[in-house]
Every structure is written in C-alpha cells, then in structure tokens.
Automatic annotation (TrEMBL):
Upper lineage: Eukaryota, Metazoa, Chordata, Craniata, Vertebrata
Predominant location: membrane
Organism of provenance: Chanos chanos
UniProt catalytic activity: H2O(in) = H2O(out); glycerol(in) = glycerol(out); urea(in) = urea(out)
GO molecular function, one term: water channel activity
Protein known as: Aquaporin-10
PROSITE patterns, sorted: MIP
Gene3D superfamilies: Glycerol uptake facilitator protein
Amino acid sequence: MKENNQMTKVKKTMVKMKIRNELARQCMGEIIGTFVLLLFGCAAGAQIKTSNETKGQFLSANLAFSIGVMSAMYLSIGVSGAHLNPAVSLSFCILGDLPWYKLLPYSLSQILGAYLASGLVYFVYYDAIMEYSGGVLTVTGPNETASIFATYPTEFVSIQSSFLDQVVGTAMLLLCILPLNDKRNWPAPSALLPPIVAAVVLGISVSMSANCGAAINPARDLGPRLFTFTAGWGVEVFTSYNYFFWVPLVAPMVGGVVGTLLYLVFIQWHLPDEPEEVTGNPEDMEKNDPKYKEAMEGPIFKVAAL
C-alpha cells in the first residue's frame, strides 16, 4: 500500500510539473536537442585540438556532429520537430509548417542550447584547454582554442567565398532533407529520419569544411561564439578574420531560403497531387471509368497519332 501511495504521489507531482503551454514545451525540446548536438560536436573538437590530433582527427569531429544530429533528433522530434537550426525553422515557416511567430523563440532556444553545451565542454576539458593554450585563451595563433567552439575561416579564404560556401552548404542541407518528410514525394519512414539527416550532415561536413568549417547552422556557431566571448576569449571572437562572425550567422539563413525555393520550384510544385480517398467497390468504380469502357469496347491495339 505504501508503495502504491508513493507511486500515486510521484504521478501527481509529474502531472503538476507538466508544462501546458505548447510553445514552451517546444522551446524546451529545441534547447535540449541543440544542447546534445553541440555537446557531441564541441567535445570532439576539444579532444582533437588539445591532444594535437593524437586522439581524433578531421573525420572524428564530423562523425561526432552527425551522431549528435541523430541523437538530438530522436530526443526532441516528438516535442518540437527537432529543427535544431534556425535555418531549418525559417524553411518550415516558408513552407507553412511552422507559424512565423515561433521562429524567434525557436531560434533563441537553439542558440541557448548551443551556449550551454559549449559551457559544459569548457568545464569538462578545462585542464586540457589550459595546458594546450598555456593559460592564454586566443582566437588566432599556434595555440588558439576558440575553434574548439565556433567556426573560423582558413586564413586565405575571403569573406565573399566564405559567404558563398555557407549559402551552398545550407542550401544543400535543406534541398536534401525536405523530401524526407514530403508525403507527395518519397518520404522516409519516420523512425529513419534521424540517421538519414545525420548522413546528409556528414556528407556536407566532409565535403565542404575546408573553407570555414561548414557551420550550416547559425545557432551552432553563435551560441558557442557567445560563450567564448563571455568565458575569456574576449571581443576577438567577433573581430578576427575581418569580422567573419556574421557570415555563419547570416549566410545559412540565406542558404536555407535558397534550398527551400530550389526544392519548391524544381520538385515540389510538380509532384502529383495526393490520391483522394477511395470509397465503394473498386471493381464497380473501375467499370464506370470512361478509360475502362474505352479499353473494353475499342480495338485491342491502337496506333498512336503521328
């Protein structure tokens, strides 16, 4: 009896704690989802950087981010849709799948989740970061550690090339994931969406990271960049590389729109309409079809008009 009473109390407590506001629940889903995504990715970056690539290399970080995408989607897709990316949220607003008033709360939640994940990675790898950097947190130089968290361009890459890089990468992301949930196209089974999206992210990461890190996600870059700004790296995280910081913030949003429009113009608008629900006896309906009557009453073979 005591155990039953305790279980009842626990259930009552859970009911009381349940958040009724839909948007609040969705924001919580985006926070924890983006947190998991960045925890995987930034932790891999810290391990690679502080070990001088003896405990991981380029592919390790890309795999970690991809597994983070998959895990985060499984975690939060039932609550918020697992956008995890303001560019994806903007795309869904354009498509009418997300109300426009939710775009800002979703985006802020994603940035917050990325910020919190960066903080946890910093504390987990604090000793290693300090040992590697000599206790001096810098954005440039041989012992820089800012790239553990945010993305930065290769020194010879211009702002223009970086912008184009991020537009193309994010456009590819949206162009490849939008068909997965389109019932008029060839949708993927819902349970397989996370690994398929993760594979798309991995493909983009291993092919388009050389210029400026393949952020393709404003929250993935801005959240960690804000953390490094507040944790001791200073204003240089915004001013370095000719004020590069705005590129992974703006270009993915542009790329998301481009990818969405490409999918609409080249694919979605030309797909056949969804079949209407059929009622009645299929055989009777088939016999009443004019094409059926023509086939039965007309010649067996027809020669096409030239």
